[in-house]
Amino acid sequence: MSNLNSVELKTLVPAKDFARSQDFYQALGFSMPWNDDNLAYLRHGNCSFLLQNFYVREQAENFVMHLLVEDVDAWHRHLSESGLAERFAVRMGDLVDQPWGMREFVLFDPSGVLWHIAQNI
Questions:
Q1: The domain made up of 12-120 is a member of CATH 3.10.180.10
Q2: Domain VOC, which positions (predicted)?
Q3: How far apart are CA 13 and CA 54, in angstroms?
Q4: Which of 30, 55, 83, 103 has the most CB atoms lying inside 10 A of its own CB?
Q5: What is the rounded distance in angstroms from the CA atom of residue 23 to the CA atom of residue 21?
Q6: Buried b / exposed e across 37-63, counting CB within 10 Å, b at 16+?
Q7: Residue 41 pLDDT more than 90?
Q8: How many CB atoms lie within 10 A of CB 28?
Q9: Per-residue confidence (pLDDT) for residue 1, from 0 to 100
Q10: What is the distance, to the nearest Å, from the Cα of residue 79 to the centroid of all Cα atoms in its chain?
């Protein structure tokens, strides 16, 4: 019988300024176990993605990531207190309870990629 089990799914996130984006994601709390001139492997807990030294404005501004966390209030408080949005000149939204059963806030990265950081409620 064939083994068709999946192991992992990663996306490649675009970066307008590759070095700045690497700094942003590390300041956000991701570790970077590996990188070269064109690609960086970023992870936080069991979540990971590949940051690529590639940028098309229309793609980046229509790219959305969703990070499900255990305590979204703690994430929002930590990022607010750290001054991440001001340091990287990005937008971060307020916490919102969504009708689909999630509490979340949005955060844009330096390339315009939209992140929804949420927890189930």
A1: yes
A2: 3-120
A3: 9
A4: 30
A5: 5
A6: eeebbbeeeeebbebbbeeeeeebeeb
A7: yes
A8: 20
A9: 76
A10: 13
Name residues whose C-beta falls within 8 Å of residue 112's C-beta, 6 or more positions apart in sequence. 16, 57, 60, 61, 63
Give the H or E element holding residue 15: none
Tell me if 121 sits within 8 A of 71, measured CB to CB.
Answer: no
* CB-based contact 24:30 (threshold 8 Å): no
How far is 35 from 24, CA to CA, in rounded Å? 15
As separate numbers, helices (DSSP H) first and strands (DSSP E) second, the chain gives 4, 8
The end-to-end CA distance of the chain, in Å, is 40
Q: Give the pLDDT confidence of 72-115 residue by residue, as tens digits.
A: 999 999 999 999 999 999 999 999 999 999 999 999 999 999 99
